[in-house]
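Re-run with default settings, no changes from the original entry. Doing this only to confirm the output is reproducible before filing.
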Amino acid sequence: MTRPNFLVIVADDMGFSDAGCYGSEISTPNLDVLAANGVRFTQHYSTGRCWPSRACILTGNYYQQIPKVSADGSLPDWGRPAPHYLRPLGYRSYHSGKWHVNQFPMPVAHGGFDRSYYIRDYDHNFAVKLHSLDDEPLPAVKPGNGYYSSTAHSHRGSPRRSHPGISPPKNSPSASVRAKHRGPSVGEPSLPNSKHSRRGRWRSMRP
């Protein structure tokens, strides 16, 4: 049996029905296609804040049960993020965007991801100062150079684009986690005057 690839998108401050597949009045066709051809959560409950909700999704445990990396960096014997358990099954795991998981501060060393593009100052969508690649700090982005966080998330989160040095075996499965926080385009990026734009505009939300 072929193991499936899968993508988990965590969007802070996004309501249950903000995506079209859950009844939104906003047009989100790309998310709707993913939902129609994938698995939709119907019994997942957030914890009211971003970091415990993210920790629960990654570990499958209630937040108060999740163990923490020790002061010397040693990982707990149980309750680790999913990539630690996916790797022995042949998966490669990729993270892109916000992280903020208090029990596991570093996405690669602690989270177990093969590749990670982590934006720490996630409210600077055009001039990020605090971001890292595979747990290593990157230079601050200079204003006006065309950087856009949603595009960076997409490029860094793609195994082929972000990790060209790895040549996975044929049909090797992959898992990706992308976390978005309060970007100018919550849900799906739409970039005017850009080759990454999708045609059409969002229908405006009713008051």
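Residues 50-59 form the longest helix (10 residues). The chain has one domain: 6-180.
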